[in-house]
Amino acid sequence: MSNHSLELEHVLHQLPKVELHYHLDGGLRASTVRELAIEANISIPEDEAALLELIQVQGHCNSLTQYLEKFQLPVAVMQTSTSLQRVAYEAVEDAASAQVKYIEIRFAPQLHLEQGLTLEETVDAVLQGMQLGEANTGTIARLILTCIRNHPVEMNLQVLELAKKFYLHGVVGIDLAGDEAGFPPLLHQAVFEAAHQADIPITIHAGEAAGADSIRDAVDSLHARRIGHGVRLEQDLELLDEIRASRIALEMCFTSNIQTKAASDEASHPIRRYYDLGLAVTINTDNTTVSNTNLSYEYARLAEHFHFEPEDFQKMNVEAIQASFAEDAIKKELLQHFIGYGEEKNDE
């Protein structure tokens, strides 16, 4: 690696960052999965490489459906208040190590009830872990509650009620995730119409495993203020213009998007095109463990493939702050820090 590359990698790592799209169950440390599995009497391979095969994409991945299989073991070990608190704390700690100053973590409460926790107890545990992580690292952490596409509407309405109960007490929004191709957004229109009426901010996974029509439905019918991924937006140029004009942010996840085949390969990923067209592009990991990444690595890969410069990343982070669901006071504080950071660097 050249001296220039090493210097750029160091600069990118030191950049303050914002992450809007991070799944809690996709970011567990392998060592934590092992310890929690032993505590829960769940059989796992003794070999480290074999364990990683269960929780991490190894090279080739055929689809989003195959990608989602890597969540089975992490979810299985996240069934107690103690385990949820631990992984939430570690998520904030890991984010801080990549210089993330603000992170929105998302998780699906309905997936963590197998050992008798109530929905409220799952949210309480995750928030406790996040708050401890925030206190110990200084990284500001907020929570988004995820509805699952293949769950009945009634179950997702329960998630909405949780979002209402905890809104602005750590929870800042609601999400829809899962098998996009098999369960289109309109199946859950009633949930997100109710969320919109309750003024709960909404982000929807769309344009990852389905086309631009899925993004259209997420925006027009589900009131999405942000789009998770949005890779296939360019299939509908009229919609692209509308999303650009309305500043609906795209939560793009480069490594994950290649693995799930949202984009066929690195060169075809549209992030540079979207950025140059003036869309509100943000950079995210999606799942640090499943995709074997962190936000500093995502920046380095994007710099390598698309020649993004530090000032481009700084601009995208400002977009991320503006698109975040953070409280106004937190947004103001973050904007001052990030814009000030850019000015300080320009003065050096």
What would your notes on this structure say?
The protein is of the alpha/beta class and 348 residues long. It has 16 helices and 8 strands. It has helices at residues 3-14, 30-39, 48-55, 64-68, 72-76, 81-97, 119-137, 153-166, 189-197, 212-220, 237-246, 254-259, 271-276, 295-306, 310-323, 328-347; strands spanning 17-23, 100-107, 140-148, 171-177, 202-206, 226-229, 249-252, 281-283. The chain has an 8-stranded parallel sheet with strand order 1-2-3-4-5-6-7-8. The longest helix is centred in the last third of the chain and has 20 residues, at 328-347.
Layout of secondary structure:
Elements: H1 3-14, E1 17-23, H2 30-39, H3 48-55, H4 64-68, H5 72-76, H6 81-97, E2 100-107, H7 119-137, E3 140-148, H8 153-166, E4 171-177, H9 189-197, E5 202-206, H10 212-220, E6 226-229, H11 237-246, E7 249-252, H12 254-259, H13 271-276, E8 281-283, H14 295-306, H15 310-323, H16 328-347
Parallel strand pairs: 1-2, 2-3, 3-4, 4-5, 5-6, 6-7, 7-8
Helix pairs in contact: 1-14, 6-7, 8-9, 15-16
Summarize the structure.
The chain has 348 residues and is of the alpha/beta class. It has helices spanning 3-14, 30-39, 48-55, 64-68, 72-76, 81-97, 119-137, 153-166, 189-197, 212-220, 237-246, 254-259, 271-276, 295-306, 310-323, 328-347; strands at 17-23, 100-107, 140-148, 171-177, 202-206, 226-229, 249-252, 281-283.
